[in-house]
Structures are given as C-alpha cells and as structure tokens.
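Example record for the data management plan.
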Amino acid sequence: MADIDWTPALVEARLIEAADTMKRLPPVKVQGYFNTWPVVRPEFADLVGREPEQLRLGPPSAAAISRMDEALEWLRWLDPEDAKLVWMRAEEKPWKVICRRFGVARSTANRRWDYALNVIVWRLWGRPVPATWSARFVAQRVEFVSSEK
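Corresponding structural encoding:
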C-alpha cells in the first residue's frame, strides 16, 4: 500500500472494484441441505418466447478478494452514515436514490462523498485526521499534499 500514490480517484476506483467483486462472490447457502431432483432439460418449444438467461462473470480471483477486503477496512475509518453513502456510490446507485436514503440534497451528498474519499486518502498516507478539521480543509490539504508529490 505504501508504494501507491493514493488519490481520491484511485480510492473511488478501488471501492467500485470492491463492490463489483462483492457481487461476483458465490451466494451464501445453508449447509446440510441439497436437492435430489434431477436436472430438467427444457425442449425447444419450452424455450420459445423466453428471455435469454443473464450471463454472469466467473468468481473473482484471490487477488481481487484481497483488494476488496482491504477496501472494506477503509470504510471503518468513516462515520457509519458516510461509509454507507460511499458504499452506495461504489455500487453505482443513482444520486437520487442516495439523496432520498439520507434525506439530503445532491450537493450535500456529493460533498459528504468527496469528504469521505479525502479522509480515506489522508489515512492511507498514514496521517490521522483531526476531528477539528472541516471537510473543505481536508480536501484542500489532500490536494495540496498530492500536488507536492
């Protein structure tokens, strides 16, 4: 992690990748139950008029799962509401749904999302974020330090 020059865009990309990896994980099933029915093969007449089945990507690689676990740990650095907002955005939910969920305007949701990404970047640089810092100040510090690198 130390050899990567973290930016808010890179953190966002990693969180989106984590959400995609989470979708590709196999479903959790109750163990001990199984199906003894034989697989029924449909005939051509049964398939006429049906929608084609959705193709799914295969299971994620071990490296993708490790990166997902790492990105999920980053969400612990945020307030629970901000972590939910960032995760909903990583799942590519529309801003309208996010705004309705949190009861805020789009500009406020965008500002909170931007602040959360900047907090993650600041923490990935190995620096604590003082509680007295405002969202705007954190964004300015991240921009200033990343321009110096």
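Summary line stored alongside the record: Residues 106-124 form the longest helix (19 residues).
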